[in-house]
Amino acid sequence: MADDPQRNFRSAYYEKMGFRGVEEKKSLEILLKDNPLGILPPHSDSHALVGGYRREQYQDIKEALEVMRYINSSTPSTLVYLRMFQLENQVLPRCSEMLPPESEDFLAVSRAMEEIVDDPVDCYWLIKCFITQFYTKFGDSVPHLPKSLEHYLSQEEPRLLAHLKSTGALLQLPYSLWFRRCFAGCLPECSLQRVWDKVISGSCKILVFVALEILLSYKIMLLGINRPEGVVNFLSNIPQENTDAIVTKAVELWQKYCGNPVHAV
């Protein structure tokens, strides 16, 4: 499997985290049934102990938020995860009703992760680790991704780029949806997992090529839209039927421009 150029990059990540010989699986949920808590220590004897600690920590944080009246029994689970994350990172707002602008990025990722993982403890830990890793590793790169997209679009479809510029749509493309939420809320779960696999493996550049392939796939339609808000509305709600094909072509573009970019930023 290690010699397969189309190998699922999630496998490399699991091995890095201490798993050995994990078969490729299409669903994180399936894997979590065997390894209950996303990122675990390399020694299997420690899994149950660490898993217990994490479950206790989850309950302690949740109970603390309930005592402080930031959450209650009717609070949506995604908002619970957000408040837990804020408390752990010491950025909990003073007002329980306050939601910073960047909160929607977290909530979008949380909603997508809930479609993949059933257990709330597993779900929170995966959300927390994914977002922490993403912004720790790629936080400085994210603001430059729109320019990178513009560059590759000029190579692949300069006519479309010129149209997006002339209509004023280029500056208004849904960059937050694509690059800050990693396509959570844009792609369905099966396609989204394939994109997140690449991000987890060490590259955020895949996000650029998914966005690029979306633009290329709907080129004819986009060329017929002359108002920037029309472009943004369409790209924020793309059809869900052929997203697997879009991701496959995006990976091909990724390999075309970056070689075999297992760790290309």
Automatic annotation (TrEMBL):
<dbReference type="GO" id="GO:0005829">
    <property type="term" value="C:cytosol"/>
</dbReference>
<protein>
    <recommendedName>
        <fullName>TBC1 domain family member 7</fullName>
    </recommendedName>
</protein>
<dbReference type="InterPro" id="IPR000195">
    <property type="entry name" value="Rab-GAP-TBC_dom"/>
</dbReference>
<keyword id="KW-0963">Cytoplasm</keyword>
<keyword id="KW-0343">GTPase activation</keyword>
<dbReference type="Pfam" id="PF00566">
    <property type="entry name" value="RabGAP-TBC"/>
</dbReference>
<dbReference type="GO" id="GO:0005765">
    <property type="term" value="C:lysosomal membrane"/>
</dbReference>
<comment type="function">
    <text>Non-catalytic component of the TSC-TBC complex, a multiprotein complex that acts as a negative regulator of the canonical mTORC1 complex, an evolutionarily conserved central nutrient sensor that stimulates anabolic reactions and macromolecule biosynthesis to promote cellular biomass generation and growth. The TSC-TBC complex acts as a GTPase-activating protein (GAP) for the small GTPase RHEB, a direct activator of the protein kinase activity of mTORC1.</text>
</comment>
<dbReference type="InterPro" id="IPR035969">
    <property type="entry name" value="Rab-GAP_TBC_sf"/>
</dbReference>
<dbReference type="GO" id="GO:0005096">
    <property type="term" value="F:GTPase activator activity"/>
</dbReference>
<feature type="domain" description="Rab-GAP TBC">
    <location>
        <begin position="1"/>
        <end position="203"/>
    </location>
</feature>
<keyword id="KW-0458">Lysosome</keyword>
<keyword id="KW-0968">Cytoplasmic vesicle</keyword>
<dbReference type="InterPro" id="IPR043039">
    <property type="entry name" value="TBC1D7_dom2"/>
</dbReference>
<keyword id="KW-0472">Membrane</keyword>
<dbReference type="GO" id="GO:0031410">
    <property type="term" value="C:cytoplasmic vesicle"/>
</dbReference>
<dbReference type="InterPro" id="IPR039842">
    <property type="entry name" value="TBC1D7"/>
</dbReference>
